[in-house]
Design brief:
The protein is an alpha+beta fold. It has eleven helices and 17 strands. Helix 2 crosses helix 4 and helix 9 crosses helix 11.
C-alpha cells in the first residue's frame, strides 16, 4: 500500500468516525416535544380501512457527515494579526470524504450570528474536478419563534444556509471572521457588524447525502399522475417483501392528508374550481360565513407532491405535529441553496434540506410548509397536512397563523422562472382561500420577537409578504421580492377577485 493510499484511508476513517458520532448524538437527542396523537389517529384509520394497508414507504436513506472545524495554522494558511481562536480563520484542508451533495456550516448557539465569510470547494465524483470557492450565506434568520417548544428544545443550532453542490467526494472549507482579508467567491453578510468579530464556538461542517435514487426510486410522480385509487376507497393489496414495513410516523404523515387523498398517495392532484369549492365546504364548512358558502373565494387546488412523493424519511422528524389556529399570511422565501440543480433533482435537494434542518440544525421537521422548484412543481413541506394550519419554522417571530413557501434556489441576482411565480400564485390562491384570506389584502400578525418588531406588537403586513418584510434579511432575494406584486394580483384573480 502506498503512502498516499494510507493517508486517504486515515482521512476516510476519521471522517467516518466523526460522522457516526454526530449522527448518533443527533438521534439520541431526537426526543418528542408533543404527544404523538396523529400516530394513534393513523393506526385507527388503518384499522377502519380493513386489511388493506397503505403502499410501502420508499426506502431512500441518506446520511450526514459532521466534521469539526479547527484554526488554520501557519503551516496551512497565515493567520495574519488574529490572536485568539475566535478571531482566527477556521476550516478544513482538502480531504476525501464519503459521497455528499449538500454542504452547510453549523455552530453551538442559535442566537449567535456568524459575522464573517464561509466558503467551500468540492470535488465532483463524475470527473474528479474541483470547483472554485463558493460562498455560503451566513444568515441565521429562519427558525422557530423565540420561546416556542421547538426553539427551546436544547437541540437547535446556529447555521448557514445549505448549498447544493451535486454529487461530491472531497471538500475544503474556510471561515474568515468579519474584518479579515476577503477572498475570491465570498458571500458577504447582509448586516452591519463591528470591525472585529469573533467566530461562533463549535463550528462544524455538515456534508449531507440525500440518499441514492437508484436505491429507492427518486423519480417524482409525473405531472398529471393521480392517486392509484379513488378518494374514499381502500388502497390496493399490500406490497410484500423485505423493507416494506410502514413506520408509525410515515402512517401519521400520510393520514394527515386523508381528507384530500387516499393513504399512501404520492401526489395530491389538481382539482377544478367547482371541485375545490365542494372540498372547501367539506373541510371548513362549519367555519364559513353565509357569503363564503354562497360564493367561495378560493383558487383551484394545485397539484402538490406529497412528502411520500419526494421520499421523506419520516423517522427523522419529531413525532406528532404542531398546528396554529389559521393561515392569515404567506411568507415567500428562497432556499439560498444555489440554482445549479436540475428539476429532476428537486426531490433530492428537498431531502437534503430536510435532513439539514432536522439532523444538523436540530429542528423538529423541515422549516417550510411548501417548496417550489424552478419548473413550478409544488412540494409538501412540514408534515401535518397540506390543507391544515401547520406551524412552520420559516420566518422568525411570525410563524403563528402563517405559512412559509420556499422557492428552491437563490434569487438575489437571478430572475425567478415564470413557472415558479405561477406556482406560488396558485398555491396561495388555494391555501389562503381555505382560510378566507385575500392575496391582495393586508392582515395583522403578532410578533413573537427576535425580528424587526418587539414581542407582542401587532404588525400590519401584506397577506403575501417576503421574508424580508419581517426580518432584516435579503431573503427571498431582490429579483423574487420585486415580483410579489404580480404574484398577489395573479393569486387574487385565481380566487375570482377583480
Amino acid at each position: 500500500m502506498t503512502m498516499s493510499n494510507i493517508r486517504s484511508m486515515r482521512g476516510f476513517l476519521a471522517s467516518s468516525i466523526a460522522s457516526s458520532i454526530g449522527v448518533a448524538c443527533a438521534a439520541a437527542l431526537a426526543l418528542p416535544l408533543t404527544l404523538p396523537v396523529p400516530v394513534a389517529t393513523a393506526r385507527a384509520a388503518l384499522a377502519g380501512a380493513g386489511s388493506a394497508p397503505a403502499p410501502a414507504r420508499p426506502d431512500i436513506r441518506g446520511s450526514t457527515q459532521s466534521l469539526p472545524l479547527a484554526p488554520l495554522t501557519p503551516l496551512t494558511r497565515a493567520l495574519g494579526s488574529t490572536a485568539s481562536t475566535g478571531l482566527a480563520e477556521q476550516g478544513l484542508t482538502r480531504r476525501d470524504v464519503r459521497r455528499f451533495s449538500m454542504v452547510g456550516v453549523i455552530w453551538d448557539n442559535p442566537d449567535t450570528e456568524l459575522h464573517g465569510h464561509v466558503q467551500v470547494r468540492t470535488r465532483a465524483t463524475g470527473n474528479g474536478a474541483w470547483s472554485g470557492w463558493r460562498g455560503l450565506e451566513t444568515h441565521n434568520d429562519d427558525g422557530a419563534d423565540p420561546g416556542s417548544a421547538e426553539r427551546t428544545s436544547g437541540r437547535v443550532r446556529g447555521s448557514t444556509a445549505p448549498l447544493w453542490v451535486g454529487d461530491s467526494d472531497a471538500v475544503e472549507v474556510r471561515v474568515q471572521p468579519e474584518g479579515g482579508r476577503r477572498t475570491e467567491g465570498h458571500t458577504p453578510s447582509t448586516r452591519a457588524v463591528p470591525a472585529a468579530s469573533a467566530l461562533p464556538s463549535g463550528l462544524r461542517l455538515e456534508l449531507v447525502d440525500p440518499g441514492d435514487p437508484d436505491d429507492g426510486g427518486d423519480e417524482v410522480p409525473m405531472r398529471g399522475t393521480a392517486p392509484l385509487v379513488p378518494h374514499g376507497s381502500q388502497a390496493g393489496p399490500p406490497v410484500t417483501g423485505p423493507g416494506n414495513s410502514e413506520s408509525a410516523e410515515a402512517l401519521a404523515s400520510s393520514t394527515a392528508n386523508a381528507d384530500l387523498v387516499p393513504l399512501g398517495a404520492t401526489v395530491i392532484p389538481a382539482l377544478s374550481r367547482s371541485a375545490t369549492e365542494r372540498e372547501m365546504r367539506t373541510l371548513r364548512g362549519h367555519e364559513l360565513t353565509a357569503g363564503q358558502r354562497k360564493k367561495p373565494r378560493i383558487g383551484p387546488r394545485p397539484r402538490i407532491v406529497t412528502r411520500r412523493g419526494w421520499g421523506a424519511d419520516e423517522d427523522l422528524r419529531e413525532r406528532g405535529f404542531a398546528y396554529t389556529k389559521k393561515v392569515k399570511a404567506a411568507f415567500v422565501h428562497h432556499t439560498s441553496s444555489g440554482n445549479t440543480y436540475r428539476c429532476s433533482q428537486a426531490a433530492s435537494v428537498i431531502r437534503a434540506i430536510y435532513r439539514y434542518h432536522v439532523v444538523s440544525m436540530g429542528w423538529r421537521d423541515i422549516g417550510y410548509n411548501f417548496l417550489v422548484d424552478k419548473c413550478g412543481t409544488i412540494y409538501e413541506g412540514r408534515a401535518g397536512g397540506a390543507a391544515k394550519a401547520v406551524r412552520g419554522a420559516h420566518t422568525l417571530g411570525f410563524n403563528n397563523n402563517s405559512m412559509g413557501i420556499a422557492v428552491i434556489g437563490n434569487f438575489s441576482k437571478n430572475k425567478p422562472p415564470a413557472a415558479a411565480l405561477k406556482a406560488i400564485a396558485r398555491l396561495t390562491a388555494w391555501k389562503l382561500g381555505l382560510y378566507g384570506a385575500n392575496p391582495r389584502g393586508k392582515t395583522y400578525l403578532k410578533s413573537s420577537g427576535g425580528n424587526l418588531y418587539r414581542k407582542g406588537k401587532n404588525v400590519r403586513m401584506n397577506v403575501i409578504s417576503g421574508h424580508r418584510d419581517g426580518y432584516p434579511t435579503a431573503c427571498p432575494g431582490w429579483q423574487l421580492y420585486r415580483k410579489l406584486g404580480t404574484v398577489r394580483s395573479t393569486a387574487a384573480r385565481y380566487q375570482g377577485r377583480r
